[in-house]
Design brief:
single chain, 20 helices, six-stranded parallel sheet, globular, alpha/beta, about 15% strand, ten-stranded mixed sheet, about 35% helix, Dihydrodipicolinate Reductase, domain 2, 18 strands
Length: about 550
C-alpha cells in the first residue's frame, strides 16, 4: 500500500472508536492508522501539534489549613445528603449500604472513593429540614467523632445563630433565592443548588445582595464546571479548532419514574413530621399534600420544570465553554405527553436559544459568519442518548465525559489535509477520554444521564473524583484564601434569566426577547412576567 494511500480505508468507524477509547490524556489522533506506516505516525504528530489542544487539569485550589469552617446544610433530602457527603460527612445508613455493596461486588469503589476524599477541614454544625425524619438522620449520623451538629427549626434561626460561617442550600427551587439573600445579607457564605432563582425579580435582588456584600463568597452548584473534558473543550474552542459554531444541540432523555421526578413518598410523612407551612413559603397555600412535598419538581409552584431543573445543566455546560451569555431570543414548546399524573410542568420540551451576534472565530473571510442557535430538546418518555454536539464550519465536537472532534468535509481550515487524505472526516481528529483505565459503572438510565453530563464524577491524574466534591472544595478554598468560584453570581444570573425566558416562552406561546442594553426581558404592554412565570397551572 502506498504511503499516500488513504490509511483509513481498511478501518470502519467502529474500529476507530474502539481503538480511540482506550487512549488517554492528549487523546488519540489516528492511532489505529498510525500502526500502518511511519508516515501516518508522523502525520498524527503534526496534526496533534497543529491542533495544540491541552487536556490539563485546572490549577489546584489553595490549602485547607486553618480553623475549621462551620457549615450548615439547609435541606437534607437526596441532593442535600450528596452535598454533605462531598463535604466529608456520610450518614450511617449510607456507610452501611456501601459496605454491603463493596462486599457483594469488589469492583464497587464508592465507599473507597469517599474514604479517600481529601479532608476539607470543615465542621457540619447545623442542619435545617422541615421533615423530622431527614433532620433526625443527620443528627444521629453527625454527632460524634469530635463533631457537634444541631438542628435548627428554621433557616433564619440557623443564619442568625452565630454558629455557622457558611450554608449549603439544597431546598426546592422556590426557596433558593430567599434563603441565599437572607444569608448573604447576614454575612454568611452561600453555596446554592441550581436553578439560582425561581422568579425574575429575585434574580436581580440576589445579584444585588452579592454585589453589596463583597466579602461573602457565593457559588452556584453547577459542578460540571470541574469536569476535565469540559476544560479540554474550552481549550479547543479558544484555539478555533471547530471554526465558527452556528449550532449547538443538547438533550435530556429519561424514561423511568425517578427521571420523571416520581420519587418515593416516605411512609412517615404527615402533618406531625413535616412543617408544611414552612415548606410552602411563597407557594400557594394548600392543605398538606405528601406528593407535592416529595415530588415538588412536578409543579411550577415549587420547581422550574425542564427549563429550570434540567436545561440549566446543559445551558451552563455550554456557557462555561463558549461564554455566550444570555440569548437574544428564546422560543419554547412542548407539553405533558408522557406523565399525565396531575403535574403541571411539561415532560416534553424544546427550547431554541438564538444568539444573532455570536462569533467564535473563523477560517473564512471576515464578516461571512455570525450568529448561533442553541437547541435544547427534552423528553421524559424515552432514554435514547442523543448526546451533546457543537457544530462549526471546520469541525464538530461530541461532548460528554469525553471529547471527540471530527473535521467537517466542507472545512476551510482542513481542506488541504482532507484533499491529501491526511484527514478523513469520518474519523476523529482528536479524542480525549479522562477515564482511560477507569470504570464508569452506573446503576440506572438516570445515573447514566447525569454521568454523561459530568454531574457525577471527573478525573484527576487518572483517578475518578466526585465532581461535587471538587466544586465544593473550590468554594471553600475561595472562602479561606480568596478568589472567585468558577460559577458565581454573574454565571448564575445568566443561567437564571435564560431559564426564565424558556419558561415564559412555553407559557406565553411566543418568542421572548432579552434587551441587553437595559438588562431586562422584554414584556408586552400589560404583562406581569413573574406572575405568568409562577402561575401554577398547566
Amino acid at each position: 500500500m502506498s504511503t499516500k494511500q488513504n490509511i483509513f480505508q481498511t478501518l470502519t468507524r467502529r474500529d476507530w472508536l474502539k481503538s480511540l477509547g482506550g487512549l488517554s490524556l492528549f487523546g488519540a489522533v489516528w492511532s489505529a492508522g498510525a500502526s500502518f506506516s511511519t508516515k501516518a505516525k508522523r502525520e498524527r504528530n503534526i496534526l496533534l501539534q497543529t491542533l495544540n489542544i491541552k487536556a490539563s487539569a485546572p490549577p489546584p485550589t489553595a490549602t485547607m489549613e486553618g480553623s475549621p469552617l462551620r457549615i450548615g446544610i439547609i435541606g437534607f433530602g437526596g441532593r442535600g445528603e450528596h452535598l454533605v457527603r462531598s463535604l466529608g460527612y456520610a450518614t450511617t445508613e449510607w456507610l452501611e449500604e456501601m459496605s454491603r455493596a463493596e462486599k457483594e461486588n469488589p469492583a464497587d469503589t464508592r465507599l473507597k472513593e469517599f474514604k479517600d476524599q481529601e479532608n476539607l477541614n470543615i465542621r457540619l454544625t447545623g442542619v435545617c429540614d422541615v421533615f423530622d425524619v431527614h433532620a433526625n438522620k443527620a443528627l444521629q449520623s453527625f454527632n460524634g467523632n469530635g463533631n457537634t451538629c444541631k438542628r435548627y427549626r428554621t433557616a433564619t434561626e440557623m443564619i442568625n445563630s452565630g454558629e455557622v460561617d457558611a450554608v449549603v442550600i439544597a431546598t426546592p427551587d422556590h426557596w433558593h433565592a430567599p434563603l441565599s439573600i437572607e444569608a448573604i445579607n447576614a454575612g454568611i457564605h452561600v453555596y446554592v443548588e441550581k436553578p439560582m432563582t425561581h422568579s425574575i425579580e429575585e434574580t436581580y435582588t440576589l445579584r444585588n445582595a452579592v454585589i453589596e456584600n463583597p466579602k461573602v463568597v457565593f457559588a452556584l452548584g453547577h459542578q460540571h464546571r470541574q469536569t476535565q473534558s469540559f476544560l479540554t473543550a474550552q481549550d479547543a474552542i479558544a484555539k478555533n479548532v471547530l471554526g465558527h459554531i452556528s449550532l449547538v444541540m443538547t438533550a435530556t432523555n429519561r424514561n423511568d419514574d425517578n427521571g420523571a421526578w416520581q420519587y418515593d413518598i416516605h411512609p412517615d410523612a404527615n402533618t406531625k413530621t413535616i412543617y408544611w407551612e414552612l415548606f410552602l413559603g411563597s407557594a400557594p397555600k394548600i392543605p398538606f399534600n405528601a406528593e407535592h412535598f416529595f415530588r415538588w419538581r412536578k409543579w411550577w409552584a415549587y420547581g422550574s420544570g425542564l427549563s429550570g431543573d434540567l436545561m440549566t445543566h446543559d445551558y451552563d455546560r455550554i456557557n462555561c465553554i463558549l461564554k455566550m451569555g444570555i440569548p437574544k431570543f428564546v422560543t419554547a414548546s412542548g407539553g405533558i405527553y408522557t406523565h399525565r399524573d396531575g403535574r403541571n410542568v411539561p415532560d416534553v420540551m424544546q427550547i431554541n436559544m438564538e444568539y444573532p451576534d455570536f462569533k467564535t472565530g473563523t477560517s473564512q473571510e471576515i464578516g461571512k459568519e455570525q450568529g448561533m442557535t442553541f437547541v435544547y430538546s427534552a423528553t421524559l418518555g424515552n432514554q435514547l442518548d442523543r448526546g451533546t454536539v457543537l457544530m462549526g464550519h471546520d469541525g464538530s465536537m461530541e461532548l460528554g465525559n469525553a471529547v471527540t472532534i471530527f473535521a467537517d468535509s466542507g472545512s476551510t481550515r482542513y481542506k488541504k489535509m482532507i484533499e491529501e487524505k491526511q484527514i478523513d472526516p469520518y474519523v476523529p481528529i482528536f479524542q480525549y477520554d479522562p477515564s482511560v483505565n477507569g470504570v464508569d459503572a452506573v446503576t440506572s438510565a438516570t445515573a447514566k444521564y447525569f454521568a454523561n453530563k459530568g454531574l457525577l464524577w471527573t478525573y484527576r491524574d487518572g483517578k475518578r473524583v466526585d465532581s461535587t466534591f471538587l466544586h465544593l472544595r473550590e468554594w471553600i478554598s475561595c472562602i479561606r484564601n480568596g478568589g472567585k468560584p468558577s460559577c458565581g453570581i454573574q454565571e448564575g444570573f445568566e443561567e437564571a434569566i435564560t431559564a426564565h425566558m424558556g419558561g415564559l416562552s412555553y407559557k406565553l406561546g411566543r418568542k421572548i426577547e432579552w434587551d441587553n442594553e437595559v438588562q431586562k426581558i422584554v414584556a408586552l404592554p400589560g404583562e406581569d412576567l413573574d406572575a405568568i412565570l409562577l402561575e401554577n397551572k398547566v
